[in-house]
TrEMBL record:
It comes from the Bacteria. This is DUF2200 domain-containing protein. It holds the Pfam family DUF2200. InterPro entries: SP1917_dom_sf (IPR023204), UCP033199 (IPR014580). It comes from Algoriphagus pacificus.
């Protein structure tokens, strides 16, 4: 499924800080913890706790967030549908990376085991 250039630009301009509280709420509402959320963010991006906090404080956009990230090689194993898009068919690399993050947060909230989320 193709995303539009407008869609790609819109989500690239979103700040990680604006979306992060929604991730926290989503996982905590389902009985998961902020620590588990950080664990999967760290797995996907390579950011440690301090770097995650810095990204929030600096209100970096997703394009900068993923530019600074070291994406886990197993991220390509993340498949499925999120927000109406089949992840593996998204052509724009940044949009695909943002949807990887959305998908692993979704999997965490749905109760999937951390090891499965990390594609181990």
């Amino acid at each position: 499924m193709k995303t539009t250039p407008e869609h790609d630009a819109k989500i690239a301009r979103l700040t990680f800080a604006s979306v992060y509280p929604h991730y926290v709420t989503k996982v905590e509402k389902k009985g998961r913890t902020k620590e588990e959320l950080h664990q999967i963010i760290t797995w996907l991006t390579g950011f440690d706790e301090k770097q995650i906090q810095k990204m929030i404080e600096e209100k970096v956009t997703f394009d900068i967030f993923f530019e600074k990230a070291t994406l886990n090689p197993n991220a390509e194993l993340i498949t499925g549908v999120i927000c109406g898009y089949r992840i593996e068919e998204i052509e724009t690399p940044l949009t695909r990376q943002i949807r990887y993050l959305d998908k692993v947060v979704d999997e965490l909230a749905k109760g999937k085991k951390i090891e499965k989320i990390m594609r181990e």
